[in-house]
């Protein structure tokens, strides 16, 4: 269930990202960098016209903080804006993790490290669908499975508490949790088909 490589990449469950290098001119002169921006803006119209013909010219990005409409009329943010949001979220996460007690930190680390084996998920999906699936589908299904297991375990802990028993969970708690989730319609039952018309 655990991905051993993930522990080396993450410290206390927070991903570390290096900021991209700042844009500067080869000579290090800030004035030269300012002169390049108007040229890039002029090249944007050429790049857009060339794109329809299959040209490989790159589009110019909007200046810092500017939002332009993207696909479907939805605005997209510049890389700098997205990076700032990511840094803010990372900082908030670090503050939260630093305030954890020892027990909470251990539980959080186990939550971050737990994962279904990608190869097993891929085999299962391929056996059901009969086609090969991409790695993104496998990752998404693995995440959905992890959330599902979390919901079943949470319900089983509630069952255990309502019955006046203490953890660890037993199979009877898990069975009752699945039964309750099915009765609420949160787990689809493939064996039973509702007949709407008689």
UniProtKB/TrEMBL annotation:
Gene3D superfamilies: Histone, subunit A (1.10.20.10). GO terms for cellular component: transcription factor TFIID complex. Pfam families: TAFII28. Residues 1-19, 58-69 have a biased composition (Basic and acidic residues). One of its GO terms (molecular function) is RNA polymerase II general transcription initiation factor activity. The keyword Transcription applies. Residues 95-180 form the TAFII28-like protein domain. Coiled coil: none annotated. InterPro entries: Histone-fold (IPR009072), TAF11-like (IPR045127), TAFII28_dom (IPR006809). GO terms for biological process: RNA polymerase II preinitiation complex assembly. Its main location: nucleus. It is found in: Nucleus. Keywords: Nucleus, Transcription, Transcription regulation. Residues 1-87 are annotated as: Disordered. Belongs to the TAF11 family. This is TAFII28-like protein domain-containing protein. The lineage of its organism: Eukaryota, Metazoa, Chordata, Craniata, Vertebrata.
């Amino acid at each position: 269930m655990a991905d051993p490589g993930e522990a080396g990449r993450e410290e206390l469950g927070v991903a570390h990202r290096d900021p991209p290098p700042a844009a500067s001119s080869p000579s290090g002169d800030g004035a030269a960098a300012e002169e390049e921006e108007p040229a890039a803006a002029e090249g944007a119209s050429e790049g857009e016209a060339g794109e329809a013909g299959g040209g490989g010219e790159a589009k110019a990005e909007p200046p810092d903080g500017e939002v332009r409409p993207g696909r479907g009329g939805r605005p997209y943010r510049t890389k700098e804006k997205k990076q700032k949001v990511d840094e803010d979220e990372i900082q908030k996460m670090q503050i939260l993790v630093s305030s954890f007690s020892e027990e909470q930190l251990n539980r959080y680390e186990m939550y971050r490290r737990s994962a279904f084996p990608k190869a097993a998920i891929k085999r299962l999906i391929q056996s059901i669908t009969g086609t090969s699936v991409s790695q993104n589908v496998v990752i998404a299904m693995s995440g959905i499975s992890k959330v599902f297991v979390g919901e079943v375990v949470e319900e089983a802990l509630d069952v255990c508490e309502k019955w006046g028993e203490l953890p660890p969970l037993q199979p009877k708690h898990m069975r009752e949790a699945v039964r309750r989730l099915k009765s609420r319609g949160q787990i689809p039952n493939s064996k039973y088909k509702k007949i709407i018309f008689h």
